[in-house]
Specification:
The protein is α+β, with helices and mostly antiparallel strands and about 950 residues long. It has 17 helices and 55 strands.
Amino acid sequence: MNLKNTSVYLLAAWMLAACAGSGLQKTENGVIIEVSRQRPADVRKVRLEVMGEKLIRVSATPEKEFSKEPSLILIPRQHKTAFKVEEQADEVCVKTSELCAIVSKKTGEVRFTDAAGNLILAEDSNGRTFAPIEVEGTKGYTVRQVFQSAGDDEAYYGLGQHQADEFNYKGKNEELFQYNTKVSVPFIVSNKNYGVLWDSYSLCRFGDPRDYSQLGGVFKLYDKDGKEGALTGTYVPADKRVETIVRREDSLYFEHLDRAARLKKVINLPDGFPFMGAGVTYEGEIEPSETGLFRFILYYAGYTKVYINNELAVPERWRTAWNPNSYKFAVNLEAGKRVPLKIEWKPDGQVSYCGLRVLSPVADEEQNKLSWWGEMQNEINYYFVYGDNMDEVVSGYRTLTGKSPIMPKWAMGYWQSREKYNTKEEVFSTLKEFRKRRIPIDNIVIDWLHWKQDAWGSHEFDPERFPDPKGMVHSIHSMNGRVMISVWPKFYVTTEHYKEFDEKGWMYRQAVKDSIRDWVGPGYLGSFYDAYDADARKLFWKQIQDHYYPLGIDAWWMDASEPNVRDCTDIQYRKDLSGPTALGPSAKFFNTYALMNAEAIYDGQRGIEPDKRVFLLTRSGFAGLQRYSTATWSGDIATRWEDMKAQISAGLNFAVSGIPYWTMDIGGFCVENRYVAGQQELNRTGRENADYKEWRELNARWYQFGAFCPLFRAHGQYPFREVWNIAPEGHPCYNSIVYYTKLRYNMMPYIYSLAGMTHFNDYTIMRPLVMDFTADASVNDVGDQFMFGPALMVAPVYEYGARTREMYFPAGCGWYDFYTGTYVEGGRKLTVAAPYERIPLYVRAGAIIPFGPDMQYSDEKQAEEITLFVYAGQDGAFTLYEDEGVNYNYEKGKYAAIPLVYNDAEGTLTIGDRTGEYSGMLEERIFNVVKVGKDKVQAFDLKAKGAVVKYNGKAQRVKL
């Protein structure tokens, strides 16, 4: 027996026992602290795990042991990080070289400091709560975690993509669930250069943990005659033969279909009333019992206005009847003071929705804290992510959840779509017309119902409308186009695919049990598969592989991936329709369906053709989605100016949430009837009425915005969305759309380099100004401008008839008008020109932008000559990135990079040594270097003459 070794083991055991006795246990990756509890639901253990130099995982549980369920959002750790554990009185500190997490032995509360001891973020005192919950026999906790605000000047961004046009979430509330046009990602980023990733898959709330209350639960209500207890609802039908209904309303809650009525009516609305074209008014007075800021949420479909205290609180908003939206607003009210309330509602469908609910006031100090609430979790799990800037914070998120692969180069080009191309000829003729008109395009999209009407989920084209689909795809490829096809996780019960899933228990059965029929034809019975089952995901891909993949399809459009089993149901019924899942009750796994579904396609395609780049487009998403080469679009938004504006803040917050590829339906998906009527009048008479004139301008402005998004894509219902169907050649709308489509292709060297940066540098392409100008507090609330890469500042125009708009030019650098080359000093607001055909576009001083030749598709020709525009006034740098564009050889190091560095003091540009190589790489090329400066005004012009450099891969220095 080795007594020496035995002594060592006994000493180690004694130390561990001593640590356990003091409530401290050191682990391989950090520490576990056991704290004393007053109540059974109080925290028992807190765990700190080092995930990286600037990454700490915090877990807390009332249980004896932590859950062993794996995270759905994390990827396996690539390497271990060195750290130290130090005890200081009643605290334990876990230190890396960059970060320190300090946990109280008494309370388990955690705070974070940098290496110098400066406080970054701290959990709030008594800010962690657990309440037991049991669903379908599974036990868990409803939890809340609150952090102290890091300062009055702090701002929060992220949370995914939401439609209330909120940008900075400091002091605001957001409910996190998935729905058409709403994509929830539980990641928040502070302008103080940290982020918190909340690891929960259930319904969550950021900010106030309370659900919105019915009006009568917060206010005394008075009808229009002054009688207490209700408001007055007046329903005036369009058909004068039908009687007007006047009734008392004790709440304004008409937000979903009534499950008890088998979804035949909207809850609480009068039975049998003809809502289409009716005028509905809710009016009376509200009397609060306390003074403060009351936060309202309006749920609306059709045309809706809200007046409070006889002032317009919500100007007219519209959404199509079947796809309502939420809008938030706040009003200061005084205790005991009765205030008039009026809602004017014009339903735009026989079945439509309306609602108004409210949150009572919360003290500013409490409201401004960073707060997470989760409906059902095993425990609290969150990841603290620190960085020197916001880009580093996003990089930390991707370290945890996965890097973003480089999308195929053709995905950076233009995507043409509509609801929907009904025949093979419609698809082919559309692409042919683009080529005939010499308007660039890479991708054409085949939307839903390309299958036989009664065969949803068969993955087979309707042979009458789409004969020889393989030949169709081949013809598109021969015209240098790509094809994306709509694939839903939905199956009619009559299909063999449904039966294949169902016999293994992999279908959600509640919709079938309740005989829910969809909107197609007579209405068909079906449901969605359970993407939480690993084998079900494999089967989902296998069915696609057997039916679609042999046709040569290039990209996959994963629609309704929330999952949206049935529109317009309440939250509880949505949970019932999408569960139970293979992992547990849908209450616990409510938000991550799209992530699981994307994994099925990505892993499936790479499993059979590992070198072909995957492209997925999904209507929903979650933390980690980027690792599956998946983009998200903003769903079935409306064709309204306010909806266009809302996409700016929605896209920016989605980008900060760590998922770099985002797009929208340019022009909006759901169309107001007045625009349809305008198109019909144009078809009959050739005349452009006032509504159709607005339609054209709306599309022109939306295309201008879309050209500077990570993906450039048009889609929507009738009127058709091809540029020649919107306006004739020579019309300002047509001219503008074609101009920006061509410019998009000229920018391809710049855009594709940004795509390379998203992978290698964890870069964000579409950037709120706060990412690049964090030191300038004036940008904290600028949610209607953004940077497209490091060089271009974009300011979409979102008001009809506007020919100017106000812009803020961030401090710290100068700016150049892209179209004229004129210089603007930073640090001020200006009203700038915004003519019909142009979007305000400015270039940052120090920017280097590579432009390529005119092209009809992304790989038509290599950029043998690149025009480099160099904007003087500051030093600058950019790296031109190139690879083969369609495969994963870049993962093996097969790519090339050319560093470009501008020295402003010397007035020189250094084109550095090229590093790397790949098959088909240009060995030589010409750079035409054009300088723009205060004293050298130069408009953007690809024909501008500059310093010509013949480049062969070796460094050259150019005096400008």
